[in-house]
Design a protein that fits this description.
This protein has 257 residues and is of the alpha/beta class. The chain is built from 13 helices and five strands. Helix 3 packs parallel to helix 4 and helix 7 crosses helix 8.
Length: 257
């Protein structure tokens, strides 16, 4: 097997038997995926997602405290990197999952082979996106990540302006979609088509560029920079920063400023 990027995954599942089955029967090593954490309710899942920035989220819909779709909508992640599991058929939940643009929606009991095939397809796409992120590096000490300032679409230009005005706040795709008066799924597709990267990649990259600017100033620590640039936690910031720029924030700062 050729060397490849290992992806991280969080499982949010309150049924202990189902969680055990997922952990023990899916061939995670062959897929190049590590299950970094599990949660048994939506609030715990939201906290773990915002702290660790997993590449993939595998979640049940029916969860204690906060259902899986509410949890996903509250997190700073790509809905397209979410796989939803459901123990019952409910059109309301199916419709909401489609509206959010999750990668796939599977009914329980889960077929292991089907889930592995879905994970394999999703992993391939995510690894390609990560390569694209690293290719955006400019190699200078100004704007660390090259981003389009304008595109040939008025609505997306408005969204780019929205990002630049609000990057320091806890905004996400839903906020931008409301601002642009578009559905989240439509905005997600249109943003990628017009800019070449997805909404969250642009938002994170813009925040990192702002963080690099702050790194030039003395007396501001990395945690303060992370929070002031809109990242939910310093740990999330560190993971995203390294994915884009190939170094931890501390390493990058020490080597350049």
């Amino acid at each position: 097997m050729s060397e490849r990027e290992i992806l991280s995954l969080i499982i949010v599942e309150d049924e202990k038997i189902m969680l055990k089955e997922l952990l023990n029967t899916i061939r995670w090593n062959e897929l190049g995926i590590i299950v970094t954490a599990t949660a048994s309710d939506g609030e715990e899942g939201e906290r773990l997602i915002n702290e660790t920035a997993p590449d993939i989220v595998l979640t049940d819909i029916k969860l204690p405290k906060k259902d899986g779709l509410e949890m996903v909508a509250s997190c700073n992640l790509l809905y397209q990197n979410v796989i939803v599991l459901s123990g019952y058929t409910d059109f309301k939940y199916t419709r909401k999952a489609i509206q959010l643009g999750v990668y796939d929606y599977l009914e329980k009991p889960v077929d292991d082979e089907e889930l592995e095939n879905i994970l394999k397809e999703l992993s391939t796409r995510i690894r390609e996106e990560h390569k694209k992120e690293s290719s955006l590096r400019t190699g200078n000490t100004g704007e660390a990540i090259k981003l389009p300032r304008t595109v040939n679409n008025h609505q997306i230009n408005c969204v780019i302006g929205f990002i630049r005005e609000n990057y320091a706040s806890p905004i996400g795709l839903s906020d931008a979609a409301e601002f642009a008066k578009l559905s989240e799924n439509h905005l997600s597709t249109l943003f990628r088509e017009e800019s070449g990267i997805n909404f969250l990649q642009y938002l994170n990259a813009y925040r990192i560029n702002k963080a690099v600017e702050l790194m030039k100033k003395e007396g501001i620590n990395i945690s303060e920079i992370a929070i002031s640039c809109g990242f939910p936690t310093p740990g999330y910031f560190a993971k995203i920063f390294k994915r884009f720029l190939g170094q931890s924030p501390t390493q990058y700062r020490d080597s350049r400023f």
